[in-house]
Specification:
Elements: E1 2-6, E2 9-12, E3 17-24, E4 33-38, E5 45-50, E6 57-59, E7 67-72, E8 77-82, E9 91-98, E10 110-113, E11 117-122
Parallel strand pairs: 2-11
Antiparallel strand pairs: 1-3, 3-8, 4-5, 4-9, 5-6, 7-8, 9-10, 9-11
Length: 123
C-alpha cells in the first residue's frame, strides 16, 4: 500500500496550488482519504477529508472555503486544490487513507500515510 503526495512548492501569498495523492496497492473507492499538514515546530493537524464515495467532505475551520478536496477513484487519485494561500499555510502536507469509508478527522482513524509534500507560502 502506497500513497504518494506531490504538487507542493513555493508560492506567493494569495496564490494557488493543487496537491495530488496517488494511491496504489488497494482499492481506493473503499476508503476515505484525508489531508493533514505539519508546520515547522508544530504538531500535525487535520486539513480535509473525503468519504470513499466522494459524496461527503469535511474541512478544518482554518480552510474557510479556500481548499477543495476531491477524488477520482478510477485514476486512484485524490486532490487538494488550495487557493488564497497564506504564510501560515506553510507546512508539509500528507495524504492518508483511513480504515473505513466515512470521513475522518482524527489521525488515529488513518491507517496508511504518504511521505508528504512541502508547501511554502512566501509573504
Amino acid at each position: 500500500v502506497q500513497l504518494q503526495a506531490s504538487g507542493g512548492g513555493l508560492v506567493q501569498t494569495g496564490g494557488s496550488l493543487r496537491l495530488s495523492c496517488a494511491v496504489s496497492g488497494f482499492t481506493l473507492d473503499d476508503f476515505a482519504i484525508g489531508w493533514f499538514r505539519q508546520a515547522p515546530g508544530k504538531e500535525r493537524e487535520f486539513v480535509s477529508t473525503i468519504s470513499a464515495s466522494g459524496g461527503s467532505t469535511s474541512d478544518a475551520n482554518f480552510v474557510k472555503g479556500r481548499f477543495t478536496i476531491s477524488r477520482d477513484n478510477e485514476k486512484n487519485m485524490v486532490y487538494l486544490q488550495m487557493h488564497r494561500l497564506a504564510p501560515e499555510d506553510t507546512a508539509v502536507y500528507y495524504c492518508a487513507a483511513s480504515g473505513g469509508s466515512f470521513t475522518a478527522v482524527e489521525e488515529h482513524e488513518y491507517t496508511f500515510w504518504g511521505q508528504g509534500t512541502l508547501v511554502t507560502v512566501s509573504s
